[in-house]
């Protein structure tokens, strides 16, 4: 089963993708994580996209389509969760083509619907474990022991350079200009299912499970 998690920055795409990986053995393909890995490893592409990402703008379709192409080629029986991809109509067309070229198809597009006002608090309070990727929040999901990841014990907890109010404003504008048209596109294709992302993460997960049943 191949699915897309669609929603604005802070909607909870990464949080829900991690649960689907644990519960169903699916593979999470987050273009944001792939781009951040490229930056950390200092590749030429990583250096090229760093300033664009920190400002909250989208990187080119060509770069992200190339990243996804490479992953889809390797295949995977339990299916892929596309997290943060596609983000433009061009990327959506490319995904159709890449999947059909590999004899696969899209089963569902889950829109995680949230209200913009909730996003500032979610984004500015977020931190993640640099070792295992677990996602935390200052008030709604802090680590049990200060500075130590609950999941793996690492003390490498980080905040993202684009998780500030200025970059978030640009990320939201990019979302409404370029990504939100995908909601209508997938609705028209009959693939769209919408869940209320303002509920607590357990309830969001239960609604996603229902939508996928
Ligand atoms: P990316 O990494 O994809 O960031 P994003 O879309 O802005 O999404 P986020 O990771 O910020 O949010 P999320 O929905 O995953 O929320 P999370 O679960 O962490 O992209 C970063 C940048 O890379 C882009 O700006 C762009 O430059 C580039 N890029 C990436 N893909 C691209 C593409 N395809 N094309 C072009 N450029 C691309 O949750 C957020 C917080 O809220 C956490 O603290 C969490 O604990 C909390 N939370 C989650 N769920 C709930 C809940 N139900 N209730 C309360 N709190 C919750
Ligand atoms: Zn960890």
From TrEMBL:
Alphabetically ordered keywords of this record: ATP-binding, Cytoplasm, Kinase, Metal-binding, Nucleotide biosynthesis, Nucleotide-binding, Transferase, Zinc
Keyword Repeat included in the entry's annotation: no
A GO term for molecular function: AMP kinase activity
Region (NMP): 30-59
Adenylate kinase active site lid domain location: 126-162
SUPFAM superfamilies given in the database record: P-loop containing nucleoside triphosphate hydrolases
Biological pathway: Purine metabolism; AMP biosynthesis via salvage pathway; AMP from ADP: step 1/1
Biological process per Gene Ontology, one example term: AMP salvage
Reaction(s) catalysed by this chain's protein: AMP + ATP = 2 ADP
Annotated Gene Ontology cellular component terms: cytoplasm
Main location: cytoplasm
Residues noted as binding ATP in the record, renumbered to the chain: 10-15, 126, 135-136, 199
Entries under Gene3D superfamilies matching the protein: P-loop containing nucleotide triphosphate hydrolases (3.40.50.300)
HAMAP family, sorted: Adenylate_kinase_Adk (MF_00235)
This protein's domain notes: Consists of three domains, a large central CORE domain and two small peripheral domains, NMPbind and LID, which undergo movements during catalysis. The LID domain closes over the site of phosphoryl transfer upon ATP binding. Assembling and dissambling the active center during each catalytic cycle provides an effective means to prevent ATP hydrolysis. Some bacteria have evolved a zinc-coordinating structure that stabilizes the LID domain.
Subunit structure: Monomer.
Family, as annotated: Belongs to the adenylate kinase family.
Descriptive protein name: Adenylate kinase
Organism: Celeribacter baekdonensis B30
């Amino acid at each position: 089963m191949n699915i897309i998690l669609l929603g604005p920055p802070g909607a909870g795409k990464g949080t829900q993708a991690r649960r689907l990986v644990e519960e169903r053995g699916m593979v999470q393909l987050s273009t944001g994580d792939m781009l951040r890995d490229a930056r950390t490893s200092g590749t030429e592409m990583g250096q090229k996209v760093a300033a664009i990402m920190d400002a909250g703008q989208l990187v080119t379709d060509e770069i992200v389509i190339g990243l996804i192409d490479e992953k889809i080629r390797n295949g995977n029986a339990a299916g892929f969760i596309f997290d943060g991809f596609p983000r433009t109509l061009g990327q959506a067309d490319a995904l159709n083509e890449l999947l059909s070229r590999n004899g696969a198809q899209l089963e569902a597009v889950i829109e995680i619907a949230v209200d913009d006002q909730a996003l500032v608090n979610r984004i500015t309070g977020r931190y993640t474990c640099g070792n295992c990727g677990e996602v935390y929040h200052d008030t709604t999901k802090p680590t049990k022991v200060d500075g130590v990841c609950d999941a793996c014990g690492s003390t490498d907890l980080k905040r993202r350079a684009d998780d500030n109010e200025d970059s978030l404003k640009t990320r939201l504008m990019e979302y409404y200009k370029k990504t939100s048209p995908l909601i209508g596109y997938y609705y028209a294709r009959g693939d769209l299912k919408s869940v209320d992302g303002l509920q607590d993460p357990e309830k969001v997960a239960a609604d996603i499970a229902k939508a996928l049943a």
